[in-house]
Write a structure and sequence with these properties.
Distance between the termini: 153 Å
Strand order of the largest sheet: 3-2-5
CATH superfamily of the largest domain: Band 7 domain
Strand content: 15-25%
Number of strands: 10
Number of domains: 4
Shape: elongated
Order of helices and strands: HEEEEEEEHHHHEHHEE
CATH architecture of the largest domain: 2-Layer Sandwich
CATH class of the largest domain: Alpha Beta
Largest sheet: 3 strands, antiparallel
Helix content: 40-55%
CATH topology of the largest domain: Tetrahydropterin Synthase, Chain A
Radius of gyration: 47 Å
Length: 271
Amino acid sequence: MDKLPKIALPALAAIIFLIIIISKSAITIGSGEAGVLYKTFGGGVVTDEAPLGEGFHLVAPWNKVFIYEVRQQEVFEKMQVLSSNGLEIKLDASAWFQPEYESLGKLHQEKSELYKDRILLPAIRSAARSVVGRYTPEQLYSSKRDAIQQEIFEETRNIVGDQYIQLNQILVRDVTLPPTIKEAIERKLKQEQESLEYEFRLITAEKEAQKVRIEAQGKADANKILSASLTDKILQDKGIDATLKLAESPNAKVVVVGSGDDGLPLILGNN
């Protein structure tokens, strides 16, 4: 009975030590995450192997694991940039990005967990200043929004392309001009719209007048052709036909033949 505690205590201590070792060594990586292994006695950050994937892992207790989110993320940025004529423009933009999975070790070693603040956001600011500086406030306000967004995306991607960051999209969410400039542009656009509308009405009126002239000319030409084809004989024959039809009418009472100026019949007593 005296020997039992002497055996149990070392065993208990070993179990407790084993539990501590396992708890220090167990790493669980969540969904959409990956881990970068740092070997304290083995060369530091592991860059020549794939990062640790999702799930449960056991690592030596003297090593460390740095966990990164590797799914697509979004970062917002508000900037003040200058247009081509030196006016201050406020630009709200966001970026869709994610770290390059296979290069996660190099990203951690060279850029650290602060890569968004140290690399991505400065790149977006630099690209935005460069692109917006090529355009006037009028272009920024109206027709060039999509082009500006695409150019900022391409320039930012060129900057971060070798920085182990995958840039998926840049979205320009708002462009704010100084109030006086915005009002002046809106007045100009309104005047241009009214001018276009006036020109459209003039063109429509001119087309309508041209249509009326063509129709009138057509009628005049038709009458001219008809007049040229109506000889005295034709007119006399048509008069006789008309007289016969009137004579057959129940309202025709008296027909005087050959009493007209042209020898055509006269109809008298018409009720």
